[in-house]
Amino acid sequence: MYVLSLDASERHYLLSLLERQRASTAKHLAVQLRTADDVFGMVTWSDEDIASTLRGQEIPDTPGNIRTVRDSYYGRHIQDHMVEHGWTLLEEAVSGLVR
Hints:
Elements (H helix, E strand, L loop, with lengths): L1 E3 L3 H12 L4 H11 L7 E3 L2 H10 L6 H9 L1 H4 L1 H18 L4
Antiparallel strand pairs: 1-2
Helix pairs in contact: 1-2, 3-4
């Protein structure tokens, strides 16, 4: 898992790198970064994260098992759950402000 916290210069540099790539993931990340000047965090997951989790549960980290996890309900909807959890955290942060 990767968590990025970016200031403006880091965001600009990352955009320049992504724009040179032709992979769909790079294009998707570039679109996300271009649509908001105030992006302060992004989370991405990889097959290695799945493999590590499989190994942690003593399940072989085969390509088939990795694909099964990605194709599962949770794998297909991980973005929805991350967004939902992120909103919950933001609401908790705001409610913790002294008024």
